[in-house]
Predict the structure.
Amino acid sequence: MSDETPIRGMGHSVRRKEDARFLRGKGHYIDDFKLPGMLYMDIVRSPYAHAMIKNIDASKALAIPGVLAVITGKDLDAAGLAWMPTLMSDKQMVLPVDRVVYQAQEVAAVIATERYIAADGVAAVEVEYEPLQPVVDPFKALEPDAPLVRPDREQKTNHIWHWEAGDAAATDAIFQGADVVVKQDLYIPRIHVSSIETCGCIAQFDSIEGKLTIYMTTQAPHAIRTVFSLVTGIPEHKIRIISPDIGGGFGGKVPVYPGYVIASVAALKTGHPIKWIEDRSENLQADSFARDYHISAELAADKDGRMRALRVKTLADHGAFDAAANPSKFPAGLFSVITGSYTLDAAHVAVDGVYTTKPSGGVAYRCSFRVTEAVHTIERMVDTLAQQLHMDPADVRMKNFIPHEAFPYKSATGWEYDSGNYQETMRKAMEKIDYAGLRREQAEKRARGELMGVGISTFTEIVGAGPSHTFDILGIKMFDSCEIRVHPTGSAIVRIGVQTQGQGHETTFAQIVAEELGLPVENITVEHGDTDTAPYGLGTYASRSTPTAGAATAVAARKIRDKARKIAAHLLEANPDDLEWKDYKFQVKGTPGRSVTMKDVAFAAYTNFPSDVEAGLEAVDYYDPPNMTFPFGAYICVVDIDRGTGEVKIRRFLAVDDCGNIINPMIVDGQIHGGLTMGMAPALMEAITYDEQGNIQQGTFMDYLLPTAMETPAWETDKTTTPSPHHPFGAKGVGESATVGAPPAIANAVVDALSHLGVTHIDIPITPWKVYQILQEHGVAEVH
Amino acid sequence: MHFTGTQQIKAPKERVFQFVLDPNKVAECAPGFKTMEILGPDHFKPTLAVGIGAIRATFTLDVLLEDVREPDHAGMHGRGSAGGSAVDMKAAMDLTTISETETKMDWVADVNVSGTLASVGARMMEGVAHKLTAQFFDCFRAKIEAAG
């Protein structure tokens, strides 16, 4: 490749390197791997949400030709593996010894020579249950006579933990003297990430080397390796986790699921590789869930709309095990960012975690640990206040935004926001969508009886966990890492501690290195997801890859550039201090003609290096971020409501995002488009509910409504750029902004459309049935 | 799920009652009846194949008769699981003489379905369960009358 090959570093819409294989159907997902002698596992699951297991009779299953083993909780118990730790310092059943605590819980595993035979084996395992009363309602779970979900614990209660942030006394004092107090209960329903690829693994044990290799759908391979080592006692260097191409993670592939552990035990027991792949219904019914927050919020304000204080109480339904992957000090995640983009004199937020007989909750579904719940609450509360005061919600926001000059800003719950320019982003959105024009149109339509609404969400996220002084998971600090090796001919390999699940890391991380080292992006390979080769890192979730591993990549590249400067000086026979890095070259200051490229330096690093410099050109960096980053945005949604069906149609949706400096604008747009669709889904369609017996009511995609292209409007996007002052290249992270920001914009638009009828709140999902009932109550439903 | 119903059966009360206490005869009316194992006068295990939509399951129900007050009242409690599904059912009937040749049967049934059948078939569950329960008692009437 000639030296004229463009570098295409920061800010270029480089086409995604990984798409070459994805678009050809040549990706390598777990189910594509087939190992010699591989056996298949399928799982017997509980029909009951809560029951004692009286007996498991596997004799009929074992009589089926091809069924080789049936593994039960008692088998695992004998090896000390019936329980495993969760990432939240709780423990979770791998297979139950005597009781089940949610419907579809793993009860036993069948190992067979073929996948279908394994399924036949599952159908033939006879389990005798004694049903117990399920615990479905988290409020009733806290009543004194509620059945215990977890009698294994010392604390004989379904209450898991209480957590709070902010200043309760200062908040209460402001409320007592406030001009206006608005109060609203909100329920953010349980939802499921529903990645295209379900969870699964292949566990392989090499008895000669004593090494366990697990090909696994995980967003955090290194953390999983450490946990596996601690649980099984297998030395960590004898465990290798390979996380190949992942068909969507969204937080659902951070937890350790029982299937991974059972498959590993089966591999050790049989000496064969064991493949376990969930089917769609298993994934939907049994894997960890997101949201499920019952929130009660109050906002105090002056009568002119100046917000003063926020008080929030929340009940968090965590299911039967507290298996969320929140940082250790944050059992309710980063919910305390609930003060949002606004100056408040005080705030207090309290959360209580509760056990119920449901699968584990608490997955941070495409959001940085409960930020979605926080943003939905504050953005709904701002609109509630505006409605109460008969003010325009845009005016209330403008009045209360943290001013640009106030950054870095210390929030009422203790976060230091790094940078922001909320007014500018909001103004850009309002101008672009012609907010004033929309309000005129709405007034005209309202006069004609038509239902049109305009909703705003001006959210602030908190991402990039996180600084080691505050953030750890099971004690492992939440730094992240990068290792770069520049080859003699000027190409490079980059290995990172985070793991892509569709974010385009193979492209964006190459662009970071291209920018920092002046090597063409085509010449840089990015590897990740193999714990034997990648440097240790905590993985990809919570929009942390660019803020942490992205920063590590830039810093590692700069270490290489520092060394390269010495080699360049040697080649140019100049003093290193007399060189400047300009236009992707080392130039002798004031003599542009005298320069060498990184490619020249790379060759010299192996062939002609100065005597006081080591050969080679590589570096590693473990980056401990000094602070979180705070991306933000201004979203405006326009809806029309069909009075005949209650259907909400999103006519326009404009997302103006600010994620600091951008590596690849095309990929950022892709992230925003996908995120908006995933934000629309819970706003209008998705919710998981349970009947009184604890049966999930949305066990297939017939009942759990995922948006398709049919339901998805044409998203409009724009940007402002407010760099993070502490990130090496000013980036903030963007993967989750739209998922977080979209739901309240949509909910606010629907409430706005109905506000003249006296409607002040609708819980999501805002389904046609829910809206139609409201229209009927207010006598405005059209009857056909 | 709670269901109730009334049948008017053209048979005297004693004959209706004798029919109800005969597990083999009753089981023939159960949806998807396949086999019967009798463990005692009030304890038996019928195997039934039921389905909702594409989900089918073969249950072996463990059934106990309870609160039998000849010739006016009988109750039963049945429970069974199959694969990822389970059924728990309590039913009772009261017989009242209308005339020498006609009996009124008031029945009540509480059916709890758990697992895959309930979660995958949730939308159809109530309708299907109601239909199967009603068919069961309809079948009763038809068989008793035919036997007469």
Observations:
- The radius of gyration of chain B is 15 Å.
- Chain B touches chain A through 18 residues (CB under 8 Å).
